[in-house]
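Listing 4. Sequential folding, example run.
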Amino acid sequence: MRGIFSAKSSHPLADAREARRILDGLAIEEPSAALDAISGWLESVVADELLRLPDCLGLVFRLDEAAQPHTRRLARHYLTSPRLGRQQEYRLWKANHDFWALLASAYENCLDRFQDAEKGAASIRPQLPLFVVRLLRALATQLKWAQFRYGPIEDLLWQRMGRAYLFAEAENFSEQLLAPYAGVPGESSARLEYLKALVFQVSSMDSLMPLEIEIAERCLGHYLPLFAFGREAAAPNAWWVNAARSLPPRRLAAKPQAGPGLRFFAAGTAAAKLGQLRQQVERGEVPAEINFGAQYSPRILLPVLNHLSLYWASRPPTRSHDRHQVSSRLAAVSGLGSIHGLLTRYGGSKFEHWTVEDVSLGGMAARVAPGRDGWLRVGALLGMQPEGGDNWLVGVIRRFNRIDHGRGRVGIETLSRSPQAIAGDLGGVACQAILLDTMRSGETVRVILPNAAFEPAVPLVFPWQGRSARLDPVGQLRAGAEFDLGLYRVQPPA
């Protein structure tokens, strides 16, 4: 029981000299080892009932600050390293996700103790604005790391964020601007941190790849002050959230039930500013005032900006084709090599078996078992064979949600219902590819190529029906993490 006994904590970090030695040592540790050690110290600090609240919060602050350079390095490694194995990737993801979850819980523990009016609680009142901003940022970063693996995201997370934000409102500091971390540019507030998590959620991150999610989050952070947020709907195209309940934000389709936690937000002028940015990037200009986290080419940025423009628009995106509910089996394989082998009858790939829930002219949705190898992700190329059929379809995963750790749901865009495997020469390099359209002289066709194989001036030459066929490049339609999609013009047969 806190506050009854006057015994002094024997925690190593309770001694100022020892704490300085430990924290100085953490600064020079390898990032993974440092983050693991900091997580252990956080757990022990929160568990020590003899630490007074001001001392406990002070140590959480210092451990948080010690972790920041390490979390940035590990996040960059996770998002940009091309050679991570599936198990290594998962370990790196788990270390980051679990740290932010632990940090948020540590701050929430301090908030509980303050609201319980524990002895000494009044002395931390000047620190409340910084404390709550960091708490909301930890919860929002936990949300982002969960989205990197497409969930599942617990609804309780929204109630935890809402509780912290409503506390800031009640204490009249929700709009107070401050620098969350010394030496890191930019100011924030409890209102902006909460709003950022809300906008992140409604921006449909489940159809972006992890690096694109990171870029999108940084972009929305830049335009966040332009969003409207308040107790009244500022526009008919607003979203709403009840900060007192464990529900994610939703598009305003009908007036929600009134309540003290009800808040509305809308894109405001952010959508127009984003449109101007898109035009700049289309011209090959990447403005320096926006911190995307690294120097990215327009080719990488444009799909993200197009995506955000779609979801911040005054009219929400609608489906291009009607969907029809079904329940049928589907065999699926992933990867250009596996699909090429199946189409040429040389494939020996192991099939995944999924349950299709609905279909349309443009694609389908299916329930899946994510499996241990982790290949299921947005942008994965699929070969699919519906139950009872003998033909293969080619598609790509456009949306992925984990329902729980053993089940997921994917949205698949169908690229072709009559794909054909080809093998030829691409600028002197042997190339396996998949032709998606019927070839007619003078017309264009889409071709799936290996990743980074498309060249704007290099034709694809291959044997076709006893002759030599030549496809001249017109443009690159998509550049995926696993494949390129090129548009080519069919030349008359030689």
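-- end of first protein; second protein begins --
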Amino acid sequence: MSNTRPGPLQRLLSLACDIEPREVTATLTSFALVLVLMGAYYLLRPLRDAMASDWSDAEVSWLWTFTFFFSVVAVSLYGWAVTRLKFHTLVPAVYGFFAATFVLFYLAAAGDNHPVLIDKAFYVWISVFSLFHISVFWSFMADTFSKPQSKRLFGFIGAGASVGAIAGPAAVTLLAGSAGTEPLLLVAAVLLVLTLPIVALLQRLKNSALHNTAVEVGRGDFDYVGGNPLSGFVAFVKDPYLLGIGVFIFLYTALSSFVYFQLKNLLADYDEATRAQIWASMDLVVNTLTIVIAAFATGRIAKHLGLPFTLACVPVFIGAGMLLLAAAPMVPVVVAIQIARRAGNYAISRPAREMLFTAVDRETRFKAKPVIDIVVYRGGDMINAWGFTALTQGLGLGMAAVAGVGAVIAGVWAAVGIYLGRRFNDGRDAMAPGESVT
């Protein structure tokens, strides 16, 4: 620890994390960076979701299919890029590139040529963007802070994401009704451009304040993380524990798809600006609940009630909500389920799921985990979207019947969570000496 007398700001920050005086500026700058990034994304997310109510279930299913394939290609191209570009070039290039694409979408929307095609391309592109903005940020953080610093500071820095996720939807709620939705594309582009000087400042602070000139991620490490995706597939399919995590995520995407499609169908009678405000309001409530639950409840639940309960409690709660929806298929019920599902995932299920990866070795985390987090997740979106379409447009099931199917899926989801929690407790919680949880 530094012998420098802590100032008022450091003493205030010390309530949240163990921070040294020389780390204050870099930590707050990192907090600001992720806040701006998440604010930009959450400005655009309600716009994307509001468009879906204009399309049939089959059309959205096709869009999710395109998103899956585009995501696989994009992740592969990004893996190729990180093996050849240094972070001081890569990070600004990624954010600058996405900012430019948002300006192009604004110009295309203003031209009013083929608006449906532009909307669908935007829908897919924002879904692809969602894979990268936060992933690149955390890679940049790993290149900026040392391992001991990451243990002390990353939790506080990550809270900036939740703040940004609240600020973005709040802005949509205020602006979409009066100014329309298209100008929000320019606002998001400006926010991404604002990240470029923040990135440059952090790159300077890495040397001048943090004195972390030795903290680098070499080309060999990049090859190790993304150079050979097939080894991750092999590890995934051979390990029942990893397969269980994959099934857990797949079942989560099933419930996500069912609730999403039900909600977008119920909102079809509203105009696009109103839909955007409704989606943004839900984002605002979800992220507020996430901060409160994650800060004060999640750790206590995992510590006192155990990981099996922690993994199963949200599926059980959502299953009960689906039964309620079967009895009362109304917009407020679907909205309540959507809020509970997302807040429960962000605050409880996702942290608990990440705990499961502390029971595997480093190679598995870096090679198999992306297969689970990206390929299984996006593949689950695609398959479950078509599953919902088959139930509604193929078999002609109504909302109540589909909700009943969702309740059964939630029960299986809870059972898988209990299995994984017990496997974790039975011996998969050993971690190699010197490894840290990231």
